[in-house]
Amino acid sequence: MNNIGNHTAISEVSTLLVLRHSSNSVGIVQAVNQYGNLIDVRPDSSLVDTVMRIDSSSGSFMDFYADFYHQLKNPAEYSFFKVREYEAQETARGLQEYIDGSSDVEKQDLREFEVSIEAVDTIRNKKYIHRESSVVNSGFNNESSVSNHSSHYRYQIEDVPWDSLAEIGLDREKLENICALESLLKGYKTPMLMSIPLSDGESVSMADVRLQLRLDDRGEVVVRIHRVLEKPNFKEKFMGHKFTKEDELNLLKSGNMGRIVGLVDPWTEEVVPSLISMDRLTNELIPLRMEFVRIPAVICGVTLNLDQVKILRDGKPLFIENMLSKKGRLFSATVQFNTDKQWIEFLFEKNLKGFDGGVVQANYGKEVPTVFRGKYLRKWQMDKLKIGEMAYISGLVNKDGKTYQGYMSFDWRTRKIEFSFKNPKKK
Predict the structure, then answer these.
(1) Could you please report the per-residue DSSP string of 264-320?
(2) pLDDT over 70, % of the chain
(3) Across residues 20-42, what is the average pLDDT?
(4) Residue 425 has what pLDDT?
(5) Residue 5 burial (CB count, 10 A)
């Protein structure tokens, strides 16, 4: 039992042991599949080399564990213990022996060694403002950043199905250049739309999509494609729910419907209390069962009371005053639970401009295509185009195979990149 540590223990690489309450069996965590079911391996299994590897540093582990825990369908069925990876098998066997030989009262002593999601959420949110913005603004600066920080991601570089990505024209360098690789490794969707070739069986055409890594039924990592959809037809039922006019207005304005409704599970046909949000980039409706909705006890230094927690859990927006930013400044803002992120989001004014046609214009900044004339744009080029500046581009190839270069600008009315061989701003 001495090898089990709490969530602040420090070691180079850690993993998680799981105790299944229903069977009192101990395993080593491998992954969570797309249905929220836990995949683990026995300590004497030949698959022990495939277990989850986690950065043990406090901040990285807390971010990882919160994401991991919120993906579980029935998290109350398990207890988790953080251990050093190289000690996992030995500790798992020892823990199993302890479980097998202990009374119910003695088993309660294990609680002091468990990773507490409540403690993780509380500590994590003292320094947390807007989770998604950090994903958009961060990225890999160089090769070493991947190797130094990859161990707390949900997926490792070697897990990525590079062959599948190559089929749609993507590789590691391109994903790094547009700062999309880190989001994928963390299990998130790419923070921007990407233009990729898709086939309908007869022809190939370019389509705007968001990509995401997920586990299939066999526990293998696959690429999930989220295509840009037409604005939802709110006159049609969604999983048995009939939208009201207020539901429609809320989804179009903030992206969150703002109330709990009963949705029909397509597999079991049971009616499940759920929240609904809309992906602001693809217009995809995202349902989430209430059992997965977790509200943090603290948001940016402000401790929520029971009434505030209930408001957020019910899906409604909440205005909070005197929150503390990362720069130590007080600010006030409206927050709301978003099912696409499975977390609280901040609804600043720019988030509430609503949808315009098929794709939202406001959130994540103005969306600039990631590809121009077959060449993936770098982040600095996209940043310049987003703020209305000219961006230089080279390495373009014409139909005769000759390379050329020039300047790009982005027309927000047509949502297309304009090209000029000379910089129009220079006379």
Answers:
(1) E-TTT--EEEEEEEE-TTT--EEEEEGGG----SEETTEEP-HHHHHHHHTT--EEE
(2) 81
(3) 86
(4) 64
(5) 19
Residue 170, SS3? coil
Residues 370-403 as b/e (b if ≥16 CB within 10 A, e otherwise) read bbbeeebbbbebbebbbeeebbebeeeeeeeeee
Quickly tell me which residue has 């919120």 as its tokens: 70
Angle made by CA atoms 374, 379, 380, in degrees to the nearest 5: 110
Q: Is the pLDDT of residue 267 over 60?
A: yes
Cα(20)–Cα(29) distance, integer angstroms = 11
Token pair for 97: 């022996």
How far is 153 from 220, CA to CA, in rounded Å? 16
* 8 Å CB contact between 92 and 17: yes
Could you identify the residue written with the tokens 């943090």?
296
Helix (H, G, I), strand (E, B) or coil at 169: coil
Give how far Cα 142 sits from Cα of 181, 269, 321, 401, Å.
12, 49, 39, 31
Q: Could you tell me the pTM of the whole model?
A: 0.52
Tokens of 124: 């994590």
Contacts of 300 (CB under 8 A, 6+ apart): 125, 126, 128, 129, 320, 323, 324, 325
β-strand pairing of 204-215 with 194-199: antiparallel
Write the burial class of residue 405 (CB in 10 Å: 0-12 exposed, 13-18 middle, 19+ buried): exposed
Backbone angle region of 174, left / alpha / beta, with phi > 0 → left and psi within -120 to 50 → alpha: alpha
The answer to whether residue 137 scores a pLDDT higher than 50 is no
- d(C-alpha 29, C-alpha 365), whole Å: 37
Q: For residue range 387-396, what is the model confidence (pLDDT) as tens digits?
A: 778 888 888 8
Transcribe 339-387 into DSSP letters.
TTTTEEEE--GGGGS-EETTEESSTTSS---SEETTEEPPHHHHHHHHT
**Residue 192: phi, psi to the nearest 5?**
-135, 165
Q: Please report which helix (H) or strand (E) contains residue 394, including its range.
A: strand 391-397
